[in-house]
C-alpha cells in the first residue's frame, strides 16, 4: 500500500472520530418512578414463603393471647370450632391436641346439648371429629356414604369398599365392633360388617393364643373382648339418635336461612305449594345440595323450584 493511500485512510478515521466527539452529549434523564404495587398484586406475585409469612402475621395476634383469655372464650366455641382452630397451624395444633388440653374439649362439649359420652377406646379429638365433621375418617373426602356408629368411622365409597369386611357367622363376630345392614334377597337378612383392620387384629391375637395352648388365657381374652364389644354396642343407639337430631337441626337451620333469603331477594312473601309432590321433591333436593347459598344461587333457584310470589309494598 502506498504512503498516500495510508495517509488518506488515517485522515478519514481521525475526521470521523473528531465528528463523533464534537457531538454534544445527551443529557441523562432520571429514570421513571416505579409504580407502587397494590396489596392484591403483592399477594398475586409473592412467593409461597412470603404468603405463608403473611398468613402467620395475620394470626400472630391470636397466638399472643394469654391462655386465661383463651380459656374464657372457650365455652362459647363448639367442638367443630375447636377442630377448625386446631387445623389452622402447627402451634395451635400442638396446643389443642396435647393431652393436657382435655379441658378445652370438655368445655366445648358443654355447649352442645345431649352429646353422648366419649368411649374409652378412642381419643376425645377423634370422637369430636367423628360427630361434627362430615368427612371420611380415612382419606378426608367430603362425600361420606356410610356412618358406622359401632366402629366410629365415616367412610366414603372407595374407603368403604376397601376397608369394610363381611363377617362370617362364627364366634369371632361377637368380639369385633360391627354394624348390621339390611339386605334384600329371598328374605330380609341382617348382614354384619366390620373394619378389615379390626378383623385382622382380632384374628392375629386369637391365632397367637391358640398356638400357645394356654386355654385359660384364651378364655380370659375372649371374655374381655366380648365384654368390650357389648359395652361399645350400648352407645350405638345413643350416638345414632344424636347424629339424627344433629342432622335435623342443620337441615332446619338451612331451610330457614334459604327461605328468608328467597323472601328477601324477591321483595315479597313466598307462597309454598306444599301439596305438590313435585315441588316438595325439588325443595328437599335443593336443601340437600352441599353448596354455599350465594346471591347467584339464590337468584337462580326460583326457576328451578318454580316458586310463586306475592309482592307487597
Could you explain how this protein is built, in words?
Residues 19-29 have a biased composition (Basic and acidic residues). Residues 59-108 form the F-box domain. This is F-box domain-containing protein. Residues 1-41 are annotated as: Disordered. This protein is mainly alpha-helical and 313 residues long. The protein has 3 domains: 56-112, no CATH class; 135-254, no CATH class; 266-311, no CATH class. Helices cover 57% and strands 10% of the residues. It has 14 helices and 7 strands. It has a 3-stranded antiparallel β-sheet. Helix 10 packs antiparallel against helix 11. The longest helix has 51 residues, at 215-265. The relative contact order is 0.05. Mean pLDDT is 72; it is low at 181-190 and 308-313.
Amino acid at each position: 500500500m502506498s504512503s498516500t493511500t495510508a495517509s488518506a485512510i488515517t485522515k478519514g478515521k481521525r475526521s470521523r472520530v473528531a465528528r463523533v466527539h464534537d457531538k454534544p452529549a445527551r443529557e441523562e434523564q432520571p429514570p421513571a418512578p416505579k409504580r407502587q404495587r397494590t396489596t392484591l398484586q403483592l399477594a398475586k406475585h409473592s412467593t409461597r414463603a412470603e404468603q405463608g409469612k403473611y398468613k402467620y402475621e395475620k394470626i400472630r395476634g391470636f397466638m399472643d393471647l394469654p391462655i386465661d383469655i383463651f380459656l374464657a372464650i372457650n365455652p362459647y366455641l363448639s367442638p367443630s370450632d375447636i377442630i377448625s382452630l386446631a387445623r389452622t397451624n402447627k402451634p395451635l395444633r400442638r396446643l389443642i391436641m396435647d393431652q393436657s388440653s382435655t379441658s378445652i374439649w370438655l368445655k366445648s362439649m358443654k355447649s352442645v346439648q345431649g352429646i353422648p359420652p366419649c368411649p374409652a377406646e378412642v381419643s376425645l379429638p377423634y370422637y369430636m371429629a367423628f360427630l361434627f365433621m362430615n368427612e371420611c375418617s380415612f382419606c378426608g373426602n367430603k362425600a361420606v356414604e356410610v356412618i358406622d356408629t359401632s366402629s366410629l368411622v365415616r367412610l366414603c365409597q372407595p374407603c368403604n369398599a376397601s376397608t369394610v369386611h363381611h363377617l362370617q357367622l362364627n364366634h369371632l363376630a361377637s368380639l369385633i365392633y360391627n354394624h348390621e345392614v339390611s339386605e334384600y334377597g329371598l328374605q330380609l337378612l341382617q348382614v354384619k360388617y366390620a373394619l378389615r383392620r379390626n378383623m385382622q387384629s382380632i384374628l392375629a391375637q386369637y391365632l397367637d393364643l391358640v398356638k400357645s395352648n394356654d386355654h385359660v388365657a384364651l378364655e380370659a381374652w375372649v371374655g374381655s373382648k366380648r365384654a368390650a364389644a357389648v359395652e361399645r354396642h350400648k352407645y350405638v343407639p345413643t350416638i345414632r339418635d344424636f347424629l339424627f337430631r344433629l342432622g335435623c337441626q342443620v337441615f332446619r337451620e338451612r331451610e330457614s336461612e334459604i327461605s328468608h333469603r328467597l323472601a328477601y331477594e324477591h321483595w315479597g312473601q313466598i307462597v309454598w305449594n306444599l301439596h305438590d309432590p313435585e315441588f316438595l321433591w325439588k325443595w328437599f333436593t335443593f336443601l340437600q345440595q352441599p353448596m354455599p347459598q350465594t346471591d347467584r344461587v339464590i337468584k337462580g333457584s326460583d326457576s328451578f323450584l318454580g316458586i310463586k310470589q306475592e309482592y307487597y309494598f
